[in-house]
Amino acid sequence: MPESQFNLVCDLSLIHTNAKWRYPGSWSGYAPYGDPAIYFDIARILERGKFDGAFFADVAGTPMVNGSMDETVELGVAWPRHDPIPLVAAMSTVTERLGFITTMSMTYNHPFHTARMMASLDHVTRGRVAFNAVVSGFPQEAQNYGYDTTPDHEWRYRRATEFQEVLTKLFNSVEPDAMLWDRETGRVADPSKVHRIDHEGEHFKVMGPLPTAPSPQGRPMQVMAGQSPSGIKLAATYADLQFAGGSSMKSKAAHRAKLVEACAAIGRDPKEVGILWAGQFDVVSGAAEANENARRYRESFPDRMPHVFLSQWWGLDGYPLEPDAYVHDTITAVRAAGVAPNWGYLDMAMENTTPTTTIKEYALQWLVEGSEYVGTPEQLADYMEEAFHAGGGVGGFMLAPRSGAPAGIARFVDEVIPVLQHRGLFRKDYAHTTMRDNFYKK
Fold first, then answer.
1. Is 328 inside any structural domain?
2. Mean of the per-residue pLDDT values for the chain?
3. For residue 406, is the peptide bond before it cis, meaning its omega torsion is within 30 degrees of 0?
């Protein structure tokens, strides 16, 4: 892909939650969540639009708000969430070039299981899988894996660093040309090219080798988030892509500068780590339709839903989050109380609010008014081009539909993609068969 062109991933993580399933036209004619039919159709639409991939975040817990999970369950706030790996495998069968990004926790999974699963999935998808390697920070997820609360931040990142070391060893334990499949001699593989890793560290003891054939991509692509210095350092060292939520051109440039600096510190070319700028999108004919869509979406969920979602996303549990309290005062109190939430999202909230912005106002902004990628096809193309270059010109966008699935996704493909292609900002066809090559081979 030329240097001036960017990559596109569609975030499908929450299209069935947060009242999006109630939005007029969404999920129309499809069975409730659990049946894959709507995802098959979305995968076909994304491939028609030459998207690089579909993304699935994952949190293996049922968050509580003010000490109870009742509102989470009753209102369907980021709940339920099945394991996305079977869905990725199923969607790959109705597509040929579209890639898929699923999520694996480095805090609660084991690197051997992760390496084996991702290598196997890379074979099933014929080289079209990436995994979002996360350092988990949600309390209820910790409690599902045997911890009383979220482990210490420093401990989680030490574990994640060793996790990555083990992954690298395992993916390299079977050399690319090790497999023989010689019918005449019966030799399956050359044992001199299959290696034990004999890793023993603070968190893991793994003999190896990885008992899979070499991955079609060499190794599956890896994506990371992480706004903290530890997260940026980890991504600079091991990620192929990072996703981030910079809400202004200035913040995008600042985040990219931090990642470039972290890459330089370890001697890595920053162009090897693209950034996918995350946000919600809505294709409209003009301001009137944008406002009407926002109104319809806002009216589709109960008053407390944004508040419940914000409490979840900040990683709070029993901490009392009052809708009319000021964001700045609340975050200051949270820090003073020593609660272990997702600090990156708190920093983002401080950056994007004033001292008199209330929790309720910011929660609505997050879910509705804060949708950054809203406009006509031409306006979206203008904004995305500016944002791409402000963010360093390596990577692209990971966009979630604000309204209408699959209709909103189809509208982006039918109306925005042609504008991007006409301007030379996006591919007209896939040039390669694997996800890695479509991202990085120019």
1. no
2. 91
3. yes
Query: Is residue 179 classed as helix, strand or coil in its secondary structure?
Result: strand
Integer Cα distance of 154 and 417 in angstroms = 42
| Cβ-Cβ contacts under 8 Å for 228 (sequence gap 6 or more) | 153, 343, 344
Neighbouring C-beta atoms of residue 16, cutoff 10 Å: 23
β-pair partners for 53: 9, 99
Structure tokens at 345: 């999202």
Residues of the domain holding 15: 7-287+373-440
* DSSP per position, 312-357: HHTT-SSS---TTSBHHHHHHHHHHHT----HHHHHHHHHT--TT-
In a domain, 181, yes or no: yes
What is the CATH number for 401?
A: 3.20.20.30
- Band of pLDDT at residue 336, cut at 50, 70 and 90: confident
Which residue positions form the known binding site? 58, 103, 153, 157, 228
What is the pLDDT confidence band of residue 384, given thresholds at 50, 70 and 90?
Answer: very high
| Numbered residues of the known binding site for FMN | 58, 103, 153, 157, 228
- Give yes or no for residue 126 having a pLDDT over 90: yes
Q: Cα(73)–Cα(71) distance, rounded to whole angstroms?
A: 5
Q: How do strand 274-283 and strand 395-401 relate by DSSP bridges?
A: parallel
Spatial distance between the Cα atoms of 324 and 347, rounded to a whole number of angstroms: 20
**In the 8-state DSSP scheme, what is residue 369?**
I
CB-side neighbour CA atoms (13 Å) of 403? 25
SS3 105: strand
- Please give the residue that has the higher pLDDT: either 343 or 107: 107
Question: Is residue 55 predicted with pLDDT exceeding 80?
Answer: yes
Phi, psi of 393 (to 5 degrees): 70, 20
The predicted structure's pLDDT at residue 369: 64
Q: Please state, in angstroms and rounded to a whole number, the distance separating the CA atoms of residues 373 and 409.
A: 13
**Buried-exposed string 87-97: b where 16+ CB fall within 10 A, e elsewhere:** bbbebbeebeb
Q: Is residue 308 part of a domain?
A: no
Q: Is residue 325 part of a domain?
A: no
Q: How many domains does the chain have?
A: 1
pTM over 0.85: yes
Give the C-alpha separation, 373 to 128, whole Å. Answer: 26
Please choose, from the candidates 366, 422, 389, 425, the residue with its C-alpha nearest in 3D space to the C-alpha of residue 8. 425
> pLDDT higher for 319 or 38?
38
CA quadruple 392, 395, 400, 405: dihedral positive or negative? positive
Taking each continuous run of H as one helix and of E as one strand, the counts in the chain are 17, 11
